[in-house]
Structures are given as structure tokens and as C-alpha cells.
Amino acid sequence: MTTFNFDSKVPPGPLAHKWDEHRAHIKLVNPANRRKYNIIVVGSGLAGASAAASLGEMGYNVKCFCIQDSPRRAHSIAAQGGINAAKNYPNDGDSVFRLFYDTIKGGDFRSREANVYRLAQVSPDIIDQCVAQGVPFAREYGGELANRSFGGAQVSRTFYARGQTGQQLLLGAYSALMRQVNAKRVELLTRREMLDLVVVDGKARGIIARNLVTGELERHAADAVLIATGGYGRVFFLSTNAMNSNGTAVWRCHKRGALFANPCFTQIHPTCIPVSGEHQSKLTLMSESLRNDGRVWVPKNKADVKKNPNDIKEEDRDYYLERKYPSFGNLVPRDVASRNAKEVCDDGRGVGSSGLAVYLDFRDAIKRDGANVIRDKYGNLFQMYEKITAENPYEVPMRIYPAVHYTMGGLWVDYNLMSNIPGLHVLGEANFSDHGANRLGASALMQGLSDGYFVIPYTLGHYLASNTFSKVTTDHPSFAAVEGEVKKHVASLEALGKKGGTKTVLEIYRELGKVMWDNVGMARTEQGLKLALKRIPELRQEFWNGVKVTEGADGWNKDLELAGRVADFLELGELMARDALDRSESCGGHFRLESQTPEGEAKRDDEKFSYVAAWEFKGVGAEPALHKEPLAFENVDLAQRSYK
Amino acid sequence: MIPLRKALSSSVGKKFIMAFSGLCLGGFIVVHLLGNLALYRADGAAFNLYAATLESFGKFIIAAELGLIALFLLHAISAMLLKLNHWGARPERYSVVKSKGGESKSTLASRNMIISGGVIFAFVILHVWSFKYGPGITEGYTAAGGAHGEIRDLHRLVVESFHNPLIVSAYVFVMLLLGGHLWHAFWSGLQSFGLTNPRYTKGLYCLGSMFAVVLSVGFLMIPIWIFFDLSTVLLGAIK
Amino acid sequence: MSNTSQSRHSMHLTLLVWRQEGPHKPGSLEKFTAKNVSEDMSFLEMLDFVNEDIIKSGKRPIEFDSDCREGICGCCGVVINGQPHGPDRATATCQLHMRTFKDGDTIVIEPLRAKAFPIIKDLVVDRGALDRVMSAGGFVSVKTGPHADANAILIPKPIADLAMDAAACIGCGACVAACPNASAALFTSAKISQLALLPQGKPEAARRVTGMVEQMDKEGFGNCTNIGECRAACPKEVSIDFIAKMKREYFKAMFAPMESAAGDGGA
């Protein structure tokens, strides 16, 4: 364990003035000089697309890489609920400070004050920006923007576009990006997967990407590299993340020296549609707004779990959230709701064929408001539920279960969103910076756009203007060397099929997911984490000893792509377990059974663990080095979260 | 501003041409049917007088005819160009095609406008050739025309033609195709011009369908009426 | 009602799947049998399931595109028994579940077909044409930075709602695949309409419709003949009223003021 020797570059001065002061004093790049700089943006979600569009607009030469066929597919599109902003339109007492406080408290005091404050500070600008772009936010009859409360916040600060806010914000950023593509300021490279980072003289100077259509490896050189590739939740195999979401880009950066911060901080969303069988490929989230009207319960008696829920009498139902948390009831934060669902299911009171589900019941709401009111509010969600389960939630209670949804951990970045490798910047879910140990609802969209539209355009200029750059082209020997390593890696993946293994990549992947879910999931113990640390290397060994992989690296090959991603997850999962083991406190989404209050809530240990755990890669299977960035809280009191 | 040539050669502009020419031709058909209603009378005087009156307009009628031909050719040529474009737009066909129903307006008629249109095109040439340029005064088809003096007995020609079962069935068949064509055409023409609105889209489509039915039945009943001499039969039955 | 029960049936299906090695290679339908398919599987999970067997037997799996698998990203999309995204209305392929089919069914699976969507492999097509149509004007030309307060311009709720109806398009290309003429009118008109309805998009409405229609034509899509099959196949039920709106916008653009040849100049 070493002490932290990387500067987080948080500017001095009072919290509220840090960002303004910083912006006023950082260096700028002359507009005429901007076209001389080449920037690589990997990822085209909210963070990537907004960054690429903004930098292109400013005059930089931008290349934007996208793993799907179009930037509009990025998984930001699936966010349903909304985006927070401290606009205080409803005049209900919101302010920048309150949004900052809620976010840092929601993150259980494991994030950097200055970053979170800046996020709250730029949040109103994001809404102005999106409206100017033509994002069709929901409106009131008077023509003003509509707001709703979300995720247990006590103010209505969430802006939304039906249940498709992520889609509309992404399409806004995408359209800004396509405008720059049209203006030839951004070159869009679709169906490319970044497979490695090229570091020259200690600075990030390019990437090696694989063209997923032709299979060719490509070299791309630049003066700075921006990673905006999202989270790594698919390490759990089953999650609400998209099929193409993966951890490869961040993991490769990590292996090239970038620190990985708080890898174990994972958000498990309480309201997802339960697993229906072994065939399940991913999970579908139902907006947590459902908890505004639905009541969560399980039968009091184990004998009732297979009964038709409508036949279970009122007195035989356990509305456990309302019972345990009388003041927040069904609206407790995500981590609390998830953990309690797991608890009752572990107790043998889970429902559905697998016993891994709880009821979310709208019976009383329908009785109170009528089916039409409920249909107006949640019609599309009810429809989606029925499509997937063939059950009518107007008549039978929904069955829900928690699922992995978001990773708060990610590559370590300083206040300027730069990692410890100069020139390598990390944006959005891919970095660790703003959500601490638990992300509040409607904050992910806010962070992605804040990083891309309002932070990186300033801080990247500062980096470029404060450094001198030797001329590096793709002919530089470093590119050849890294490309050679990637080529070897791809070839060894392709050769796995010839080693006589009988399992498919998917089968190993499912096993990894199960190890992760059982031991590094909602409730973690020293014993379980140690088991995971034993099982993951074994699985990795089994994988490299031979699995069925479809041959053909010289063209489109989904199976081979997956093999590469699983290979990286088999390393990343181990780091997550190690981080979780090391952090023997509970905080936010990280719940260690050994550290709980008498009431069974997460118990922080601020004395020992008030730090960011930034891990340094030391080789596959070798113990990584832990660097600690201490967290100082000058503007908030560290309180035990209570939602009683 | 979009230059006119560029506008009219775009996919939207081409449809403006189709819709404009189509709607004009639709107007012509209405007028044509109104005139031909005279054929429902067994006595040919009214019809012959109508035909003679049209002829008497001289240069004006020639100009109108040329205009019609131009519209007709414009409609047909644009249609063929569009169809060529459509074949090019999907060179490899599906092995199975099935409509998803619902609000789709995919019908046998709407998917085969080029076929109904092609048949109508051929029909119009034959129709003009057999009536306009068919036997006239010199061949002895004369009738008394009052102020017009001796006029062509077009009515006789029509009645003679429509006693041939082959011609009658051909006419009925083509008029059914015309009905199908118009079924889609009326709504489509308005939609191409953007003259539809969600509030009355359904109504317009219904109106278009009714328009098609009335015109198609109005035309196809003429040969049937004459073939079976229905005016005599029906009037006889009433008497 | 007692549908929380466990009595899920499994079925055996025959699949006829379009197989094509690459863009300019010949393709044909290949027959596969899918055994023990659970009715709880999504259509794509059924394909995953079949692929597992294919991979185990050392053959090349069926290639298809998919990403979010919750019906919003627009990545997936195949033609199932002649219908884009299969028989269910308002449903993307990833949300189609196998309970829609019966034991013993034969299912023909083809790619979205259009000249503008070249086949990459099997069921995977290149829909870059739609991106290029977007880049030809599907945006509001505003810089990133400070703007007037979001509430400075009021927008009537019905207008905002209508714009949202148009904006719901997920760009999957099912409209093109369903159209007998392979026209992209529904896709293009949805974006044109969304931005033409909102005050923020109005200033460059003429430029937008001109550019997007021109690009749409260049990409080799067919013409809209108002058949409306696109609307029936659209997983988001985007209305063809927006196509009418596009026509009106185009007509207006024909008479809009000309752009100055002198350009913006600048002092």
C-alpha cells in the first residue's frame, strides 16, 4: 500500500468559486491553433458524443470511435427517468448546494467534494443547452418545462421526456455530433473497438482499434485520448447494460498504467424484471418511478410463496419497506431497496418460479386513483412488463428483483478529468469521479453531459496549451509495438478453439457472472470475496486452456469479439473482488455484512476508509498496488444515512 | 429557396408531379363521367348533343385535349421513373412478404398502382382510338343535332360496341382497376402534397374510397346498362 | 390469471435463416432446427440459444446485430416471416417473445433489405445511410455554451408532445425494410418534423428539409408512395402524418428566401 502520489488538482478557494476561478485561470488554445491538435474520443454515448461535438465545434480535429453501427445506439439511450438540474423552477427550495449535498450524501460520502459541486453548478446549463438543441422535454400547459421528483429527492428537480429521457438527450448530443461530422470537423469511425492505448514518452498518444467489419487492426495517433466507454457492469454477465457494453477500453488503459478507482462500487437497481431462465441474456429495468405508487411486499409465510398473490390476504403480506422505513417507505434509495429484496428472498420468502423476486403491487393505487390515472403515469412501463412476462400488472402484482445497473467506479481522474497518464482523459460512467459509493437517480445523464459539454472543452485546452508535443505519427515504433501485442492477443483468442475445450465463451462468462453476483454482488463477506478471488483465476485458467471460439479474425465475428471482452472481465472481476475485500466498511452500494448498524444498515468507517482506492496494475494475477486519495469534507458533515 | 429543377427532380418533388397530374386527371374523370351519364338514357339525342357541343369548342377543345395528353404522359412517365427507382432501391427481394396490418394502407391496389396504371394507359389509347377516331359521319353514323345541323351519331357507335360481350367485360375489368387505382390515388395525392392532418386523415381516406367506388361503378355500369338494355328493362318493369 | 405458474412450454421450431458471407457474396436461406425453445425467450435469446449449439458443433454462428435488448437503441431488427421485427405491433425484435410462436412453426428470418442497407454478414446490415441523412441537417445549429434560459421560450404542451412523438424514432430502419419501395421517408420526416415543430428548430427548417431530402435521395432509398406499411412496422408507432409534414416543409422551402451568395462575411 502506498500513499497517494497523484495530484487531484482540485483548485484552491471556497467550494462555490473553485470552478469559476479555475476556468478563469487555466490556459487556452488559440482558435487558429486548435486545428493543429488531433483528439481521439472513444465512445459516443452522452459523454463521448457531447465531448466530440463540442471539441469539433471549437475547431479541434476530432476522431470519434463508436462500437455500434451508429453513435445513436450508445447505451445512454436506455436511461428512462430523467436528468437532474438545480433550476428550482418549481420554487420548492432547490439550489446548487442542495443538489450537491444530496448527491454527495447519496454517494455515502465517498466522492470528491469539488467535483460533485461542479456537477451541481453546471447542471442548469445542461438543460439550457439541450432545450436549445431541440430536445423535446415534457412541458406544462403554460409552456414551461415540467419537473418531477425522482428517487426519493425531496424537491422536484428532474427534467424528463416521457420515459425516454436518455434517448432524447443522446439524440440531442448525436445530432450535434452529426453536425460536426457534416462540417468535417469530426471523423466518425463506427463499428470500431478500442483494443489498446498507445503511450509515447509517458503521454497518451493514440489507440489501436479493431475494425469489427473487416477485422483489421488500425492505428490512430493523436495529442490526447478521451475515454467515454461507459461502465463495466457486464462483468456480472446479467445486468441492464447493453450487449456491446464492456470493460475492455478502460481495462486496457488500466493495464497501460491508468489507475482504477473504487472498482467495487456497483449500483444494483431494485426494480428490474426477474430472470426467467438460463437463456436470459440481459435484464430489463423498470423505472424506479414505479415505486411512487407501487407497494413492495412478499408473503409473511414461506408456505404462501407459490400461491396466487391475489389470494394472499392482507394480514399475510409483509410490506417490508414500509414496515422498516416508515418515513421513506417504498421510496428508500436504490441500494437500500435492493438489499432488502435480497434479504427477504434469502429468507425463503421470494416469489415467482425462481424464488428470486418480490411483488410490486399497484392494487391499492388502482383502487385509490383508478386504472386510468395509473395508465397515464406508467402505461408504457406496464406494457413493457406485459410484453416480457405475459402478465398483466393491472391485475397481478409485478414481480421485480434487483439487477446490476451502473458502476460508480472507473478510471481515476483528477479535477480536470485527466487520468494519471498525461493526455488520457476519462468521461462519464467510465471515470469514478462524481457518484461516490452510490449514484442517485437521474444523475448519470447529468454527469455524462456535464463532462462532455461543460468540463472537458475547458480542461482539455488547458492540457494541450500547457504541454509541448513531439510529432508522433502512426509510424512511431510504439504503435508498431502495441499493435504487435494486440495482434498476438487476438491470435491467441482465436487459437483457443483449437485447444480442445468443450465449453463455449458464453458458458465461462455465465459462470463468471454467477461468481460475481453471488460474492461481489449486493451483500459481500470476507469469506465470499476470498472465494471469488480463488474462483476467478481458476475460471481464467480454464478459459485460456481452451474454449470453443469461432475462427476468423479477418472479418465480422461476434463470438471472437465476446471472447476478447470476457478475457478482460476475467481480470477486471478479480480487481473488483480485491477492492471489495480491502474495503471492509459498508458504504452505499458496497455492503459488507461485517459492517452494519444494529438495524442492518450500511455502516461506514470514515476514519479508516474516507479515501478513494486507486489501484495500479502489476501484472495479470499479481497483486495490484493500492494508492489512496484521501477525501476531505470541508463543506458537509459526514452523517450516517438514515431513511427511517 | 430550392431551385425548381432540383425540387422537382427530388423524391418529394416527383411525388408533387405525380400528385398534381393525378389530381388533375381525377378532375377530368369526374367531368367525363358527368357527361357520360347521358348514356344512361336509351335515347341517344342527349349524348350526341353533348359530344357535338364539345366538338364545337374547336381550338379550345384541342388545347384542352393537348393539356390532358400532357398531364397523362407526365403522370405515366413519372410513374415509370419512380417504379424504376423502386426496383433499384431493393435489388434483392424478400422471399416472404407480409403486411403488418393495422394502420397500413397496403392493399392489392396500393401495391400495384403501376399495373393498374399501365392497363389504364393502354385502355385509354384503345378507347380514344375506337371512339374519337372510330367511324363517324362519313361512315354513315349521323344524327339530327338541332342547331348543330347533322351531327355524328356517337351514341350508336357506343351502343354497338357495348353489345359485344368481349368489349363489355374488358370495360368492366378496366373500370374495376380504375376503381382500385383511385382508391389509393385520392388519399395518396393529398398526402403527397401534405394536405392531410391527423384530425381528418381517416375521413379523407374514407372520402377517397367513396370517390373511387362512385367513379368506378358509375363508369362500369354504362356498358352493363347498355348490354342488358337496362333502361328499357327497368322502365318496362316500372310500367 | 394464474399465470405466475411454472408451466412454461418448450417448443421445436424450424428456422430458415439468410446466410451471406459478405457484402458482395451470394446468399441463401439455410435451415436450422431449434429444439427446446422456451416461450419466455426473446427472439434474440432464441437465436443466442441456437448459436450455442452451432458454435459447439464447430460451425459458424448466425450473425445478427443487437445491443440494448429493451427496444430503445434500434440496433436489432430482422425480417421475420416477411414482417420487420416480426408479427407483433409496436415491438422491436429484441422485445418479441417466443410465446408469439407455436410448436412446430417454420420461421423465415431475413435481413432488412434495401440497396441503401448493404448486407455485412447474414442478418447484419450497414445502416450508415441513415446517419448520413441525419448529418445532412438533422440538428439545430447551436454551439455548446451558455444559452437563453430553458424557459425563455414557451412551447405549448401539445406541440412539445407532438415533437416528442416524432422524436421517439429509434432509427432501426424497419420503415425502410417494410416499405415496398425501400423508402426512408418515415425516418427522415420524423426528424424534420420534430425540429420544425419546435421554435428552436424553425430558423433552419428550410435548409434542413432541403439537405435531408437530398441526402435521402442520394443514398438510393425509394420514393414514398403513401402505403403506410412503415407505420405498421415501426416499433415506436411513428405516424405517417409526419411524412405529410415533411411534404409541407419541402413545399415551404421551395419558396423560402434564398441563401446569400456572399456568405456570412465577417468583419
Produce the secondary structure layout:
The complex is a heterotrimer of chains A (644), B (239) and C (267).
Chain A: E1 2-3, H1 18-25, H2 31-34, E2 38-42, H3 46-58, E3 61-65, E4 83-84, H4 96-106, H5 113-133, E5 158-159, H6 165-182, E6 186-189, E7 192-200, E8 203-211, E9 217-221, E10 224-227, H7 248-255, E11 260-261, E12 266-272, E13 295-299, E14 317-318, H8 320-324, H9 334-349, E15 358-361, H10 363-369, H11 371-389, E16 398-407, E17 410-411, E18 424-426, H12 444-466, H13 477-495, H14 505-519, H15 526-545, H16 558-582, H17 606-609, E19 611-616, E20 625-630
Parallel strand pairs in A: 1-20, 2-3, 2-10, 3-6, 10-18
Antiparallel strand pairs in A: 4-5, 7-8, 8-9, 11-17, 11-19, 12-16, 13-14, 13-15, 15-16, 19-20
Chain B: H1 4-9, H2 11-36, H3 45-56, H4 59-89, H5 108-111, H6 113-131, E1 142-144, E2 150-152, H7 154-161, H8 165-192, H9 201-227, H10 230-238
Antiparallel strand pairs in B: 1-2
Helix pairs in contact in B: 2-4, 2-8, 2-9, 4-6, 6-8, 8-9
Chain C: E1 10-20, E2 27-38, H1 43-56, E3 79-80, E4 83-84, E5 106-110, E6 119-121, E7 124-125, H2 128-135, H3 157-167, H4 174-178, H5 185-197, H6 205-218, H7 229-233, H8 241-254
Parallel strand pairs in C: 1-5
Antiparallel strand pairs in C: 1-2, 3-4, 3-5, 6-7
Tell me the number of helical segments of chain C per DSSP (H or I, 4 or more residues long). Answer: 8
Give the largest interface pair and sizes.
A-C, 91 and 84 residues
So, the CATH homologous superfamily of the largest domain in chain C? Alpha-helical ferredoxin
Structural class of chain C: alpha+beta
CATH fourth-tier homologous superfamily of the domain at 477-630 in chain A: Fumarate reductase/succinate dehydrogenase flavoprotein-like, C-terminal domain
| Distance from first to last alpha carbon of chain C | 74 Å
Helix segment tally of chain A: 17
Mean pLDDT of chain A: 95
Taking all residues together, what is the mean pLDDT of chain C?
A: 94
Just name the CATH architecture of the largest domain in chain C.
Orthogonal Bundle
Low-pLDDT runs of 5+ residues of chain C are 1-7
Provide the gyration radius of chain C in Å. Answer: 22 Å
DSSP E strands of chain A, number: 20
- State the strand order across the main sheet of chain C: 2-1-5-3-4
Helix content of chain C: 25-40%
Numbering strands along the chain, what is their spatial order in the largest sheet of chain A? Answer: 1-20-19-11-17
Domain unit count of chain C = 2
